Amino acid sequence: MLMITAILSITLAQSPAGAPAAAPVQAPAGPTFSAASSQVENQLAAALNELSVLRERVATEKVPLTRRIGELENQLIDARQKLQQVQRVADSRALDLTNLSNEIKGRQEEVAYLSNLMTEYLRNVETGLHIAELQHWRAPLEGARNAAEDSSKSKQQVFEAQLKALEASLDRIEGAFGGTRFDGTAVDLGGTVREGAFVVTGPTAIFHANDGSAVGTAEQKLGSLEPNITPFADPMLAKAGNDFFVAGTGLMPFDPTLGSANKIAQSEESLWEHIAKGGPVMWPIGIVAGIAWLVGIVKWIMMLFVRTPSRRRVKAVLKAIEEHDDARAQELARKLAGPAGRMVAVGTDALGTSRDAIEEQMFEVVARTKTSVNSMLPFLAISAAAAPLLGLLGTVTGIMNTFKMIEIYGTGDVKTLSGGISEALITTEYGLIVAIPCLLMHAFLSAQARGIVGRMEATGLSFMNTLIKREQAQPGT
Fold first, then answer.
1. Which residues, including other chains, have CB under 8 Å from residue 285's CB and lie 6 or more apart?
2. What is the pTM of this model?
3. What integer best gives the mean pLDDT of the chain?
4. What is d(CA 146, CA 159) in angstroms, rounded to the nearest whole number?
5. Which of 33, 115, 208, 309 could bridge across to 336 with cysteines, CB 3.0–4.6 Å?
6. Nearest one of 175, 225, 203 to 217, comparing CA atoms
7. How many domains does the chain divide into?
8. pLDDT value at position 261?
């Protein structure tokens, strides 16, 4: 009974939706087993029929559903494969995009590096250009510099401008080997701007004016933004340079010193120009030098003509005195030359007087001679001491002028300071040039004067010794 009830429940549960529900079984009034069994069997048969129908329906619908499920599974597999492919493509594209971004960033860095490198290169090129070449290569270099500083320019425009400047620099290097000729302007020595042509070969640049008024090397001078013409000092070089520009061929003047030879030639000055740079202190130095040299020459001539008696004649006079022949001694003494002769003559004239009186008279002659030969020699000593002091005075005034120039112009221009420095050094130089010869002349002439006086004193001592011998040889002494 329980089993039948379960079957009925299953049958009712598996009945399709919308099917009319079976009417509830009403229990008979009396328990009739056969009626219930018949009823149950009918219900079971109906349920089985319904189950069979359902199975046939399920079987009928299962095949298309299975086929559909298979198709959907195949579509799912295809979709998954496509998804994997898309994911792989997406991953590959993402990787390619990352690599491309990194490459773009690297290229941008390379472009920035090349731009900076180009800017630095062009700056070095512009710095290394000869002042004459700036007129010829100024346009591309300024174009590259202005493009790099212009924020409205794109990187491509900046790079194109820099490439033009690079090409110009390469052309300049190529032309430097064989020489480059171009028109331009230069400033001559008078400050006039001349139009002409330049020829640049290596580090040398030569300018020739169109009117032929100036030809020489083109150089840069401090404080000037234009090339300055330094004419050739040698007329042959000037003619060769002029012929070279006119004919276009020939010998080109070349300065291996790169302008230093011309600068040295221009810096050469005459003696008077050099002295004039010393300033007003050179006047007293020159006056002292002139007087000192005049005194030295005069004293040297005077001492050169001072005569000294020979020892033979002096001995003859002394012998006559020793033999008591005063007349002969006086006669021989008057023939002696020079201050020593005058001294001996004074001594012989005083023979017969006391020895002290003779000695005093002879000493008077020695004193006068000593004063005469030493006269003006102190001026040489004073000149030797004063000349360096005057040079020092010029040094002080020159340094003061230099500091005045520094206060006005600063220390940027060396030429504004050279005047005071030249004054300081030149006055010191000429102070020493005057002092050293004065010192030497004073030492030489003093030695000559001491020699003259010394010879007189030696002769006087011989005279007095002879006189003492004569007195001692007299009887009664």
1. 278, 387, 390, 391, 394, 427, 430, 431, 434
2. 0.53
3. 79
4. 12
5. 309
6. 203
7. 2
8. 67
